[in-house]
Amino acid sequence: MKKLSLIFFLIYGTTFSQNLEEAIYAAAETFINNKNNASLKLLSTHEAQFKKQVKSKDEQLALVFLQCHKGFYLEKNSQLKDAITTFENALNRFKTNELSKFSDFDIIESCFIPLGNLYTKTGDYTNAENIIKQYIFLAEKSNHTKHQASGIINLSILYKTLEKYETVLKLTSGYLNKEDINRYQKQKVAQLRIDSQIALNKINSVKDIPKTIHNNAYSRFRSTYILQLQNGNYKEALQAFNNAKTHISQDSLSRRKLAKLYLEEAQLYKLLNKLKETKNSLNLALKTLLPNIKPTEFPNKNSLYAENTFIDIFDFYATLQEDYKSALHCYNLSFYVSQLLESNWTSQENKISNQATNRIRSEKCIDIIFDVYQNTKNDTLLFTAFQYAELNKSGVLKEKATKKTLLSQYPNDSLLLKEAYLLKEQEKITNRLINEQLGNSQASIITTLSSDLNAVSIKLKTLKEVITKKYPELNNTNFSVDDIQHKLIKDEAVLIEYFYGQKNIYQFIIDDNRINLNKINLNETTQKCIIDFIHLFDEPSIINDNINTFTTLALTLYNTLNFGKTAAYKNTIIIPDGLLNFIPFEALLTEKTNTKNFSKMPFVVQKQHVIYNTSAAFYIKDKKVENNTNKLLGFFPVFEKTKNSLIYSIDEANAIKEEMHSNLFLKNKATKETFIKNSPDYSILHLSTHANSGNASISASIAFFKETMFLNELYSLNLNANLVVLSACETGVGKRFKGEGAMSIARGFQYAGAQNVLFSLWQINDLSTSQIMQSFYKHYSDNLSANIANQQSKIDYLKDDSISNIKKSPYYWGAFVYYGQLTQPANVNNSKLIYGLIGLLIVLIVLFLLLRIKKPYGKNTTGVSK
To answer: 155, CA 20 to 30 Å: which among 172, 195, 305, 857?
Structure first.
């Protein structure tokens, strides 16, 4: 150590008097020749000094060289987060200083490729895709076939991880027989194709494995192992696995790859019921990642780092535990590592995908607790189960809401302002990138946008670390059962939360003094009942043509979902999940009925105020309304003289104008630009227009006059609305993700800052919607309670004698659901009456005084005039 310090002293003792570029290269070479943690520490110290000194392009390039070698060492030693930061810094330095114009330094090999692989390893798939596509474009531009092939291979590995096997086959199709790529790359392409074909059941037998890999023993045995494993031939799979192992040098594997190898081995032994061998291999996997751990010791959180192999290891350990506390402890370690990984991500799409994976683990934890509770009746376990249900529910929305709240508390904090700006930029660039890709734009444009998106991501990560240290309360999102129950007592309400799992639906019912946990078996009958009920609302005629089917399903689902257990409460908070997000609970029936008269049916809406929410955390949060003027901004494009004309939208606008202090934009004035400009200044936003739920490739959207706003553009807005009313089709429908719900227009408004949202679950009728909205605003102007106005507008609709029975089908009134706060009526009518009486009294007093003054003055005048 002293000798190494002396070397650095001799090199850097005269740094300021010698060439800085040479000093940087010398530092890098010294490290390269003697790589260990001590030399890394010294290198990092001097790197910090160099960053402050470098100016010329030569010096910047030297520092890029140093950082790339540092990054390689960090990656090899499983310090993945630090490796990513180092490579990001090097790449940003290379781009900012335009060093590609100055040097032929191979930035693809030295930085792009390892950074893309690191993003993939740490689950940051959005950045991985952006980086890999960038260097594929650069390689194509320079006609560098080897780098092109590397990009295609690494992009295919990413898509294979995401189980996009058809995309892998499409990507690699032109590279299998390409002459100017090396042998290793050809072998890798062949392996990726075979793995994908096996996953897609395009290869079902060992004899069908293409001969392209027969010259490579490892690949041949590896493919055989995967195929036998998939076919359930575990003994044959183990034999092929062991054969493959003999053809690789374990010394050449990174710790990560070696740990994964031991993990695979453990999983095979488990399938063969060889418990001793299973534990031995699993312990080796953990020991490989944590060399200093004792054989009989289980790691604590402080020894873990952001490495997704840990998650697989701890999830596996959990299945081997005999007592429930140990099993939950293992799962909690997996959740912790997942949080470590996610802390380094900025893309909400990436976080949402991770939530879906975590929910599988949440369900296993709830399964364990439910079984233990059946035996112990220990009520404290129930809230623990509830916390697992909440753990990955609307996590991205909760994070965004927390950031917005923090910024409202510290509106002048430059760090928070910069983060808010960058988050908006991230969504704007994402929206442009999606549109350009759908439009088949030039690769150069898409590459530039991908690069910009990656640059914003890096800035956000750097900011996040500083902000988290400054505001540690950001990580404190915990709440207790007492917090929920105090709010429920205040609201005179009950909360019912569903967790829609793979095997069961768990139902939590929390009232003012206890928690109940029910398990609903998600068998074929239950699933069919839910799906069939949802599809009743696909077309207006379905219910009217099959009224008996509707009443049967509506009551069956009411009972299946145990909704009757909330019947004693006037106010019901529902936190749906999975397919239940698309159920209009108000349209369920509380008892059997033979009537075909919809107005006489025992709908839930007749008896209960139903308020939805995405998470219990949102329910208990006291939401601050920054703009509480109750001034309404409305948009009514109408789309005159088109097949999409909304002629009754005008009636809707006129009714709103009568009831509310409003600023309405109709027809050609209802533009997207006007909305973006004005929407942050209003407490109520009303959009009467067309919307689309999107599909697998196109996101949800909402229409303005001659323009469309897509979801990511909506994400980039900063709204302060207390209430958003979306009088349009399918505004609550979109691509569904477990935990986060539908990627719908309604969610877009929630993400942008709307506190409460009223939106639709299916394609709505223009006339009936206009009637309901007129009634909604009449009641809202009377009591300033959106939840009561929503319920009452539906009841009014059912009671309206001018509406035919056919049009009273729940298809016409049941689509609108209210997500937000439970608001008690403000008794505006009483206030209006009081104010009116006060006004009348003032007038009478004034008249009385005038008469008193007038009489003596008149007598005196008369007298004078006489």
So the answer is: 305
Closest CA to 559 of 548, 571, 549, 567: 567
Report d(CA 740, CA 396) in Å as an integer: 7
Q: Are residues 662 and 719 in the same domain?
A: yes
Residue 681 maps to a domain: yes
Strand 515-521 to strand 504-510: parallel, antiparallel, or no bridges (unpaired)?
antiparallel
* CA angle at 850 for the pair 848 and 852, rounded to the nearest 5°: 70
Nearest Cα residue to 812 out of 792, 797, 796, 791: 797
- Helix ranges restricted to H, 102-208: 107, 113-121, 125-141, 145-161, 165-172, 183-199
Residue 57 near residue 97, CB atoms below 8 Å: yes
Which pLDDT does position 856 carry in this prediction? 45
Domain co-membership, 575 together with 686: no
Contact 148, 139 (CB under 8 A): yes
Nearest to 669 by CA among 639, 641, 705, 643: 705
Q: Using CA atoms, how far apart are residues 704 and 185, in angstroms rounded to an integer?
A: 50
Distance CA 276, CA 269 (A): 9
Helix (H, G, I), strand (E, B) or coil at 18: coil
Contact 307, 77 (CB under 8 A): no
- Do residues 762 and 628 share a domain? yes
Q: Which amino acid is at 245?
A: K
* CA dihedral for 196, 200, 206, 211, sign (positive or negative): negative
Residue 378 to residues 328, 369, 387: CA-CA distances in angstroms? 16, 10, 16
Give yes or no for a contact between 151 and 136, defined as CB atoms under 8 angstroms apart: yes
- Domain assignment of residue 420, given as a range: 398-475
Per DSSP, what are the bridge partners of residue 817?
Answer: 759
CA nearest to 811, candidates 774, 758, 769: 769
Parallel/antiparallel/unpaired status of strands 504-510 and 493-500: antiparallel
Q: How far apart are CA 301 and CA 299, in angstroms?
A: 7
With 0.85 as the threshold, say if the pTM is over it. yes
Q: What is the SS3 assignment for 509?
A: strand
Judged by DSSP in three states, 497 sits in strand
Count up the domains in the chain and report the number. Answer: 3
282-321 pLDDT per residue, tens: 999 999 999 988 877 788 899 999 999 999 999 999 999 9
